Amino acid sequence: MDETNQFKFRKGTKVVKKKEIYSYIMRRDLIAKLQLLSQCQTLLQAHFLKCKSFGKEILYHSNLIQYLILNSENNIAEKDGKQQIYGMSI
Q1: Are 38 and 69 in contact (CB under 8 A)?
Q2: What predicted TM-score, i.e. pTM, was given to this entire model?
Q3: Taking the domains of the chain in order of start, what are their residue ranges?
Q4: What confidence tens digit (pLDDT) does each residue in 7-32 have?
Q5: For a FRET experiment, which of 4, 21, 83, 85 has its CA 20 to 30 Å from that of 76?
Q6: Which of 79, 65, 75 is nearest to 34 (CA)?
């Protein structure tokens, strides 16, 4: 095994690789950003509630973001070293 791609410590019996740790950190960072975006969408939804067209669009996006947060562990996948949600590169 290449020593440059792994740390010297072990997690149980498995060697923890740098890529796994980086992936975990990036996933947590992405979840935090989605939660912040959801809060912003909720504020916008309240602000534009009087305008039906804006209200419906913002409600849709807010619900979609909530769904992504709740299912973030399943929706985030790596492809070619980039994180993706529903096929969109991040």
Answers
A1: yes
A2: 0.31
A3: 15-82
A4: 444 445 555 566 666 677 777 777 77
A5: 4
A6: 65
Question: Which token pair is 24?
Answer: 């975990």
What one-character-per-residue DSSP string does the chain give? --GGGEEEEEETTEEEEHHHHHHHHHHHHHHHHHHHHHHHHHHHHHHTTTSHHHHHHHHHHHHHHHHHHHTHHHHEEEETTEEEETTEE-
Instruction: Copy the structure tokens of residue 43.
Output: 């504020």
Distances (CA, A) of 33 to 13, 50, 84: 33, 27, 14
Query: Angle formed by the axes of helices 18-47 and 52-70, to 10°?
Result: 160
